[in-house]
Write a structure and sequence with these properties.
Elements lengths: L2 H15 L5 H8 L4 E3 L2 E3 L1 H17 L10 E3 L13 E5 L15 E6 L4 E6 L9 E2 L5
EC number: 4.6.1.24
InterPro entries: N1-like, Ribonuclease/ribotoxin, RNase_U2
Family: Belongs to the ribonuclease N1/T1 family.
Amino acid sequence: MQFLPALLLALTPLSLALPTTSPIENTLEARQCATTCGSVCYSSSTLSAARSAAANYVKNGGHAGSSTYPHVYNNYEDFNFAIAGPYYEFPILSSGKTYTGGSPGPDRVVINKNGARAGEITHTGASGNNFVGCSGTS
């Protein structure tokens, strides 16, 4: 049994050299901004969940709770979306949760009828009821 302490001592440097991902690194990765609307950073997972929910509602002809979302987005601001419409807008929530009804806040994902990503838009910084593009949407 005298070899056990020596073996543990010999393996300790190897275990310290193994790559690890700390909880801080996981948190930082989750907070990387896929887009920023006003000063709100949205992760790709939050955007993906909003687009997926919107696409399901469009496909099934429903709405989130008693809201009218998703609803047709007419693109009066003339954004240069890389995909064809018709377009639908659906709220993105700064909490990271997926919208299920109630106050929509200022930020939206825009998809087409097939559920493909057109972009993200916000009322923040826009005049009246208009939209401006979030980062990456022009």
